From TrEMBL, chain A:
Listed Pfam families: ATP-synt_C
Location(s) in or outside the cell: Cell membrane; Membrane
Protein name in UniProt: ATP synthase subunit c
Membrane-traversing stretches: 6-26, 47-67
Organism this protein belongs to: Winogradskyella haliclonae
Record-linked HAMAP family: ATP_synth_c_bact
C-alpha cells in the first residue's frame, strides 16, 4: 500500500470521528431545544461553536493527510 | 447579489434568522439562495469544460486541475474564448541580487509549465506551476529532477508579485469601503438615525456582531474596545468567502490561503496576549485552586494551549474553504473522468447541493472565526470571581 493510500484512509477516519462528534452535538442540541424551546437561540449558538471545535480536530487530520497524499 | 437592493435587504434581515434559526427561515431567503446558486452552477459547468479543452491531447488529471484552481496564480484567468484563454494580467514583481524586476504576467502567455522564458534585467524568468523561477547563468530551458522540482533554476530572493489573491484582497477592501462609507453617509444625512438604503443591510449585521458575539463572549463592560476588530474580521472574512464562490473569478481562493488565515489568527493572538490581565496569566502559569504538583503539570499544557488556539483558528478557516472548493471541482471532474454525458446531471445536482451548503458556510465560518476570537478576548480579560 502506498503512502497516498494510507493518507486517504487517515482522512476517512478523521471524517468518521468528526461525523460522530458533530452528530452527537446536533442530536443533543435538538433534544435540548425540543425540551426548552425558549432557550433555542442560546443552544444553537453554543452547538455551532462546539461543532467548530470538533471539526477543527478532524481538519487537523485531513490537513496532515493532504500533506502526505 | 448587490444589484437588487430589495433582495439584499431581505436576504440580510433573514440571514440572521435564517442561518441561526432555521425554523423561522422564510421563503424569500430560500428563493434568493436558490437563484444565486443556480447562477453559480451554470458557471461551474462552463468552467469544467474549459479545463477539458486545455488538455485535449493528454489524459485529464483531476488532481492537477483542482490544485491549479485552488492555488494562487500570477494572472487572473477569466474564461476561454474560441480556445484562447482570456485573463487579467497582473504584475510580477521580484527582488533578486540584480535588484527589483517588474513585468506583466501576460508575458508568460498563460504558460505555467516553464516553457516560455521572459528575459528582463539580464535574467531569465520562467513560470513553473504558478511559481516564478530565475534560470541560472547559461541555462536556456528548465530541467527537472524526479520530483518535478527545477534543478537549474532558483526562486527569487523576494517574490512580491501582485498575485490574484492579493488582487482580490484589494477588490474586497474597495467593496467593503464602498459599502460602509455609503452606510455611514446615510446615517450622517438622516436626522433620526433610521437606517435607509445600504445602511439597512449593514445595521442588522453590526447589531448581530455586537449583541450575539461581543456582548455575551467578552462581557458588558469591556466589549466596546474589541468591536472594531471583531466587525472588521467578520465582514472581511465573509466577503472574501463570498468572492471565492464567484466562478467567473476562477476561484480566487483568498480565505482558503493559509498565509491569509495565518495573518488573521496572528492578529487575534497578539490582541489576546496583550489584553491578558493578571487573572489570565495566573491561570496559565500558576493555576489557582489545585495542588502544587498539578500546577507544575498544568503549566506546559496551558502554554501549548495558548498557541494551539490561534493555530486551530487558522487551520479551521483554511481547510473549510479549501475543502469546499475541492469538493465542487471534484464533483465536476467526475464527468471527465468517466467521459460520459450520463453522469453530468448527477454531478451537476450534487455540486448544486454542495454550493448551497457553501453559501451558508461562508457566513458560518466568518461567524465562528469572530465568535472564537471574542471568546479568547473574553478569557483574557475575565476578572477573578470568588
Amino acid at each position: 500500500m502506498t503512502i497516498t493510500g494510507i493518507a486517504a484512509i487517515g482522512a476517512g477516519l478523521a471524517a468518521i470521528g468528526a461525523g460522530m462528534g458533530i452528530g452527537r452535538i446536533g442530536g443533543s442540541a435538538m433534544e435540548a431545544m425540543a425540551r426548552q424551546p425558549e432557550m433555542h437561540g442560546k443552544i444553537q449558538s453554543s452547538a455551532l461553536i462546539l461543532a467548530a471545535f470538533v471539526e477543527a480536530v478532524a481538519l487537523f487530520g485531513v490537513v496532515v493527510a493532504f500533506l502526505q497524499g | 447579489m448587490f444589484v437588487n437592493s430589495y433582495n439584499v435587504r431581505t436576504f440580510a434581515a433573514n440571514l440572521k434568522q435564517g442561518i441561526f434559526n432555521p425554523v423561522r427561515m422564510r421563503i424569500n431567503t430560500l428563493k434568493s439562495i436558490i437563484l444565486s446558486v443556480l447562477f453559480f452552477a451554470v458557471f461551474n459547468v462552463s468552467f469544467a469544460f474549459e479545463t477539458k479543452e486545455g488538455g485535449d491531447d493528454e489524459k485529464f488529471d483531476p488532481k492537477e486541475m483542482i490544485l491549479h484552481h485552488v492555488k494562487d496564480a500570477y494572472g487572473m484567468h477569466l474564461f476561454d474564448f474560441n480556445g484562447h484563454p482570456v485573463s487579467i494580467p497582473l504584475p510580477v514583481i521580484t527582488y533578486t541580487d540584480k535588484g527589483l524586476t517588474m513585468f506583466s504576467s501576460s508575458e508568460f502567455h498563460h504558460d505555467y509549465n516553464g516553457e516560455v522564458i521572459v528575459e528582463k534585467n539580464g535574467q531569465r524568468f520562467v513560470n513553473v506551476h504558478e511559481k516564478v523561477y530565475v534560470l541560472d547563468e547559461g541555462a536556456t530551458s528548465v530541467t527537472y529532477d524526479a520530483e518535478h522540482h527545477p534543478t537549474n533554476a532558483h526562486r527569487p530572493t523576494m517574490d512580491i508579485s501582485i498575485t490574484r489573491n492579493v488582487f482580490m484582497m484589494w477588490v474586497s477592501l474597495v467593496v467593503l469601503l464602498l459599502i460602509f462609507l455609503t452606510a455611514a453617509r446615510r446615517y450622517k444625512k438622516s436626522n433620526d438615525n433610521v437606517p435607509s438604503g445600504i445602511a439597512s443591510f449593514v445595521e442588522p449585521l453590526v447589531v448581530f456582531v455586537r449583541d450575539e458575539i461581543a456582548r455575551p463572549m467578552i462581557g458588558e463592560h469591556k466589549y466596546k474596545r474589541y468591536m472594531p476588530y471583531l466587525l472588521t474580521i467578520f465582514f472581511f472574512i465573509w466577503i472574501n468567502n463570498i468572492f471565492g464562490l464567484i466562478p467567473i473569478l476562477n476561484g480566487a481562493n483568498l480565505s482558503g490561503n493559509i498565509a491569509f488565515t495565518f495573518t488573521l489568527a496572528a492578529i487575534t493572538f497578539i490582541i489576546t496576549t496583550f489584553s491578558g490581565n493578571k487573572n489570565y496569566w495566573q491561570h496559565i502559569f500558576w493555576m489557582p485552586g489545585v495542588p502544587v504538583p498539578m500546577k507544575i503539570f498544568l503549566m506546559p499544557i496551558e502554554i501549548i494551549g495558548m498557541f494551539v488556539k490561534p493555530i486551530s483558528l487558522m487551520i479551521r478557516l483554511f481547510a473549510n474553504i479549501t475543502a469546499g472548493h475541492v469538493i465542487i471541482l471534484a464533483l465536476m471532474s467526475l464527468i471527465f473522468v468517466f467521459k460520459t454525458i450520463a453522469i453530468a446531471p448527477v454531478s451537476v445536482a450534487f455540486s448544486l447541493f454542495i454550493t448551497v451548503i457553501e453559501v451558508i458556510v461562508t457566513a458560518i465560518q466568518a461567524y465562528i472565526f469572530t465568535i472564537l476570537s471574542a471568546l479568547y478576548f473574553g478569557m483574557a480579560t475575565e476578572e477573578a470571581h470568588h
